[in-house]
């Protein structure tokens, strides 16, 4: 028999364990949720193996059993999934920290935050360790479908864990034995387990049985194949919580599509209520779960949606996909490509509808994810027109700095004769409002979009124009302002010096002498009302704010 071997947890995991073992009582329910979710993942993998590997066809029942023992203060979670080899136990449960874990920790560094955000643990690929929220000793006994013998992992959640061979034959799958903390003994009470499973794990697509009675305590109903009308809001919310690992959160909106041709698929997609990237969390790396004929083929599939929609949670299930579609071939798969196109259209339709029917909800959404839509408008040329309708800017119309003006709103307010959409960028609202180039626009009551987000400048560059109207920075040379009614002097720029008032030509000459080497030209202008002079950019040049941004980026 192989000796018991001792390992040290990877440094970040050690830190995480410390945090988890001191976690607050009310967040502890997520431990059960994470362990059940792992068992379910292992069952998904086994079902997949059974369907694709002839030698594994006879996989036996795929199920989860929860066995509480109140007297012994012990809880066992058992699954008949793929199991783990010795190497997998060592790597998955201790020595390899998933990429997100360091960032997760960084963001949990303050205690106040830790209380609030622990429930996100599942999203960062470290859900297993939540076992130490409720247990002071954890044993994992596992046998892989590829292995003859079973292995046992054990730890008290401090610095180390051990792995050794199990002499007695083990059934295929994994058994997590939790030795519950004194103050977590309620996790061994059957009604408490039922309550938690109903709350967090109702969408696990495998039976969850409560031993010893073998009562199935979840309902495993795939809501995405149901007709929309038959699914309640509560069911949608719960499914979101299941997919996102978010405990009490409600999605901002959901989208349920069922398409029969040319490709058959069902999909349920959700927008989370807040954008973690905005709060300094790492780039979101989750995606949509991909199923073929109800069988999960891949979690976090990134090929189904463009990168800028990476914040959406959801599931796509198609009858037209082969089970053996691999991660490598997904990108070239024509079924995936067509689902992706159809999904994208549905998402934009849904957002248009939200903007129209529930403007407040849409505003909440763009406040969180608007920057990502703008990212889309820059990178996704084929969808640019659709995205341009959905993005929002601040503007001089209300001048409150809120990003709630659509390009269509702006166009709707344009006076007759205005041929361009005007904008002005700056480091912040206050700086923008001080810009002397605004004077003529204020005087003429012409609206100017305020680009308060750095990405806005890039959006303007990418769009170039909207509805045939060029997007023009008001610090550019050629403004092409509409004729003001009854104003003979409506042309803002005076092209030739000859128009200058007598004696003014001399002033211009003096200016040219003084700063001539640093500007292309000095001209008389009617665009100012209060300020004596301003700088503008030559036709076709980048706006001043864009030059500033690029300069910063080059540093
Ligand atoms: P994640 O589930 O996001 O990968 P976890 O910390 O929850 O992160 O689990 C880490 C890994 O441990 C899993 O990816 C899986 O490979 C393995 N694992 C955990 N629980 C089980 C289980 N019950 N059966 C098989 N493998 C498991
Ligand atoms: Mg997990």
From TrEMBL:
It comes from the Bacteria. Residues 1-327 are annotated as: A. Residues 27-184 form the Histidine kinase/HSP90-like ATPase domain. Keywords: ATP-binding, Chaperone, Cytoplasm, Nucleotide-binding, Stress response. Residues 474-499 are annotated as: Disordered. Signal peptide: none annotated. Its main location: cytoplasm. It is found in: Cytoplasm. The keyword Flavoprotein does not apply. SUPFAM superfamilies: ATPase domain of HSP90 chaperone/DNA topoisomerase II/histidine kinase, HSP90 C-terminal domain, Ribosomal protein S5 domain 2-like. Belongs to the heat shock protein 90 family. Homodimer. Molecular chaperone. Has ATPase activity. This is Chaperone protein HtpG. It comes from Paludisphaera mucosa.
């Amino acid at each position: 028999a192989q000796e018991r071997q001792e390992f040290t947890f990877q440094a970040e995991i050690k830190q995480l364990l410390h945090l988890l073992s001191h976690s607050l009582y009310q967040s502890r329910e997520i431990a059960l949720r994470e362990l059940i979710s792992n068992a379910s993942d292992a069952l998904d993998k086994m079902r997949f193996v059974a369907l694709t590997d002839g030698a594994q066809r006879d996989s036996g029942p795929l199920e989860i059993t929860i066995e509480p023992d109140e007297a012994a203060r012990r809880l066992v979670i058992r699954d008949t999934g793929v199991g783990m080899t010795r190497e997998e136990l060592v790597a998955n449960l201790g020595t390899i920290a998933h990429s997100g874990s360091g960032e997760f920790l960084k963001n949990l560094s303050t205690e106040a935050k830790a209380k609030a955000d622990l429930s996100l643990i599942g999203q960062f690929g470290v859900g297993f360790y939540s076992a130490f929220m409720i247990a002071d000793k954890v044993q994992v006994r596992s046998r892989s479908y590829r292995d003859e013998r079973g292995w046992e992992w054990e730890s008290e959640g401090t610095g180390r864990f051990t792995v050794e061979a199990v002499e007695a034959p083990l059934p295929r799958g994994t058994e997590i034995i939790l030795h519950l903390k004194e103050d977590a003994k309620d996790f061994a009470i059957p009604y408490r387990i039922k309550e938690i499973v109903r709350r967090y794990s109702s969408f696990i697509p495998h039976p969850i049985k409560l031993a010893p009675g073998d009562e199935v305590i979840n309902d495993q109903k795939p809501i995405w194949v149901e007709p929309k009308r038959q699914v309640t809001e509560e069911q949608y919310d719960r499914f979101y919580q299941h997919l996102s690992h978010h405990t009490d959160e409600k999605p901002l909106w959901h989208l349920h599509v069922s398409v029969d041709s040319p490709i058959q698929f069902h999909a349920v997609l959700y927008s989370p209520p807040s954008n973690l990237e905005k709060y300094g969390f790492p780039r979101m790396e989750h995606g949509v779960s991909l199923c073929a004929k109800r069988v999960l083929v891949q979690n976090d599939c990134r090929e189904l949606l463009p990168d800028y929609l990476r914040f959406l949670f959801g599931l796509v299930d198609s009858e037209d996909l082969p089970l053996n579609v691999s991660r490598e071939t997904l990108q070239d798969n024509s079924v995936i490509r067509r689902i992706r196109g159809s999904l994208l259209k549905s998402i934009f339709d849904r957002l248009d509808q939200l903007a129209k029917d529930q403007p407040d909800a849409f505003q909440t959404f763009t406040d969180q994810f608007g920057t990502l839509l703008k990212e889309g408008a820059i990178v996704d040329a084929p969808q640019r027109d659709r995205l341009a309708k959905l993005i929002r800017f601040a503007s001089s119309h209300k001048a409150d700095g809120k990003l709630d003006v659509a390009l269509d709103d702006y166009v709707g307010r344009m006076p007759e004769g205005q041929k361009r959409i005007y904008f002005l960028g700056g480091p912040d609202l206050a700086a923008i409002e001080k810009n002397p180039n605004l004077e003529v626009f204020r005087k003429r009551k012409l609206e100017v979009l305020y680009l308060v987000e750095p990405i806005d400048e890039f959006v303007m560059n990418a769009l170039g124009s909207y509805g045939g109207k060029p997007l023009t920075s008001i610090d550019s040379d050629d403004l092409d302002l509409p004729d003001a009614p009854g104003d003979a002097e409506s042309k803002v720029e005076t092209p030739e010096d000859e128009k200058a008032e007598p004696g003014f030509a001399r002033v211009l000459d003096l200016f040219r002498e003084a700063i001539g080497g640093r500007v292309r030209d000095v001209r008389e202008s009617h665009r100012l009302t209060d300020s004596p002079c301003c700088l503008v950019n030559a036709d076709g040049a980048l706006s001043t704010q864009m030059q500033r941004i690029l300069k910063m980026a080059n540093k």
